[in-house]
Design brief:
By secondary structure, this protein is mainly alpha-helical. It has 25 helices and two strands. The chain is globular and about 85 Å long.
Length: about 600
């Protein structure tokens, strides 16, 4: 290994790195981009890379923990602020919605800012939001605090995902993603349980006090231990108009759905925001497709000019056009395998997220158990997902994605259908058994299908693909929860009127609403089963070796093309950063 490859903490360095390794310049050392040859050495992570991956995993865990911790406390919050369940669930849905809006910004943020800058700024925003939710006297301020928490944690999973894909070779990505995914699965295990216990012992506000402390710890870890993995370019610009369209579009649709429970779909406060939202979404999609087409055209011109041996002034004219990538490169969905994987992950989030809102309501309001008990009932399922997520990563590398994801989707369907059989006198641990089966299924579906779909993209498309699939998943979860909660409450109201009304029939009507919502969720999961059965096929679906062989061939071809372009231009840089294999940050 070269002097540079030995790196900091691995012996003497070459002349170029001596200054960076000096103790007086430790901050410079942390800020330096850690190249791949110093991150993954002899089949193992180097110490700086391991520490950084651990920090990113912990901070991403904090985001998942935050998203799920209020599930057991939601009935208490609804009663305290005297609001309906549809309004109260915004505390959960706003996390998914804002994260879904933040994820497309990840591609821009990782090009414009360093890993350290992104993470440190995110943790500052997260901690401020936790303080606001902790001390805010009204529901609106608590919701504002949750929004800031979502902004702070929204980009963390994509940043971790991109980092793992940039460090690990393809044949090790399944295990790597399964390992970090297992850490992510711990949050559903302890989030609702700790949240329920804190609600019963010290009130729901103690949850946000805990998150404030955790946010400060994560901030200090990022400042003193995190390394950079991606080069950044200060000239990169973001399409903030597209950001505004996404907020207007998805926010309008969700706001309209929320109002429908109180006013009906004929009210202007319902169809008006929904109409604006759908227009915003269509406009957003068309703008992204047009931006991607324009960017690719200019990229092709630059590549063709370099390959033809054009002089630097000709290339510079193209560079001065300053064409930027779209906020969300939806053209990656032309890859059939990636599109199928994204659809499967979105359906699983849509069907799964609502259960984390509906079941605690059944346990506490309809069966009379405490918030702590609600968290304990959900605990075994989350532990099961933690185990299956790790096992799913290993199974992906050995057997391919199709048998793993098909097993998981069938388990998820069976568990949801079994849970729909609950009634007023059902053994309460039956809910725990069903949730255990469901989350085992989620573990076998989510991480393998996501890893496989990203592996099917070209290396330069991974960042854009990660943004697309994570956006779709978050929006699926954000929309799924309010839609199924509204359907639950609608069927509850219809059932109560059919039973003659009155408080004496409230519990029976509520349980009927929960059962109906679970039946609808089962139908959605059944669609997912058939999507995996008929859609997941081709190279890599049955064996990870096929994926690795194809990717190596593709990378070899791209390297030959870059070498030819550099040779024809006397060694000048190609459109992408040398050796990065990533989509070019800007036209060069």
């Amino acid at each position: 290994m070269s002097g540079r490859g030995r790196g900091i903490g691995h012996g003497p360095t070459g002349t170029g790195d001596t200054k960076r390794a000096h103790p007086a310049t430790k901050r410079d050392s942390l800020s330096r981009v850690l190249p791949k040859e110093e991150s993954y050495v002899n089949g193992h992570l180097s110490r700086p890379a391991f520490i950084s991956i651990a920090i990113l995993t912990f901070i991403t865990f904090v985001g998942n923990f935050t998203q799920l911790q209020l599930s057991a406390a939601l009935p208490t919050i609804v009663k305290e602020f005297n609001i309906n369940v549809t309004t109260g669930q915004w505390l959960s849905s706003i996390m998914s919605l804002v994260m879904g809006v933040m994820v497309p910004l990840t591609a821009f943020l990782t090009r414009r800012f360093s890993t350290r800058q992104i993470v440190i700024a995110s943790m500052v925003v997260f901690t401020v939001g936790s303080v606001l939710a902790w001390l805010g006297p009204s529901f609106v301020l608590v919701l504002a605090g949750r929004t800031l928490e979502a902004i702070g944690s929204g980009v963390m999973w994509p940043v971790l995902q991109i980092t793992v894909f940039s460090i690990y070779p393809m044949e090790r990505r399944g295990v790597a993603m399964g390992t970090v995914g297992m850490a992510m699965s711990v949050s559903p295990a302890i989030g609702p349980t700790i949240g329920g216990w804190q609600t019963d012992a010290s009130g729901w506000r103690s949850i946000f006090m805990t998150l404030t402390v955790i946010g400060l710890i994560a901030l200090l870890m990022a400042i003193f231990g995190l390394r950079n993995f991606v080069d950044n370019d200060a000239d990169v610009k973001a399409d903030f108009f597209s950001v505004a369209l996404s907020v207007l579009g998805f926010g309008g649709v969700m706001y309209g759905f929320t109002n429908s429970e109180a006013y009906g779909f004929g009210a202007p406060s319902v169809w008006g925001p929904m109409l604006v939202g759908f227009v915003g979404i269509i406009w957003f999609v068309l703008r992204q497709l047009k931006g991607a087409k324009r960017f690719r055209q200019f990229s092709d011109r630059v590549f063709a000019a370099r390959k033809a041996g054009a002089d630097e002034s000709t290339v510079q004219k193209l560079k001065n056009a300053d064409v930027q990538p779209p906020l969300l490169d939806l053209t990656v969905l032309r890859n059939r395998s990636f599109a199928v994987g994204t659809l499967t992950a979105t359906l699983s989030f849509f069907a799964f997220s609502s259960i984390l809102v509906i079941i605690p309501l059944y346990i506490q309001n309809d069966r009379g158990y405490s918030a702590t008990m609600s968290g304990l009932i959900m605990l075994p399922g989350a532990i099961g997902q933690c185990i299956s997520q790790f096992a799913g990563g290993r199974a992906l590398d050995r057997f391919g994605v199709r048998p793993v994801a098909l097993t998981g989707s069938i388990l998820l369907f069976a568990g949801t259908l079994m849970m729909s059989l609950i009634g007023p006198h059902t053994w309460i641990w039956w809910v725990s058994i069903c949730q255990f089966i469901r989350q085992i299924g989620m573990g076998f579906v989510l991480m393998p299908i996501t890893t496989w779909s990203l592996n099917c993209l070209k290396p330069r498309e991974v960042s854009a693909g990660s943004a697309v699939t994570n956006t779709a998943r978050q929006l699926g979860g954000a929309i799924g929860a309010p839609v199924l909660v509204i359907l639950m409450e609608t069927f509850t109201a219809l059932r109560q009127r059919a039973l003659g009304g009155g408080a004496s029939h409230a519990v029976a009507a509520n349980i009927f609403g929960v059962q109906t919502a679970l039946h609808i969720s089962s139908a959605i999961v059944l669609v997912m089963v058939f999507t995996v059965l008929f859609g997941v096929k081709g190279d890599g679906a049955g064996s990870a070796r096929d994926v690795a062989h194809r990717a190596l061939h593709r990378m070899h071809t791209e390297m030959e093309e870059r070498a030819a372009a550099r040779a024809s231009h006397g060694g000048s840089r190609s459109g992408a950063k040398s050796g990065s294999g990533e989509w070019p940050d800007r036209i060069e």
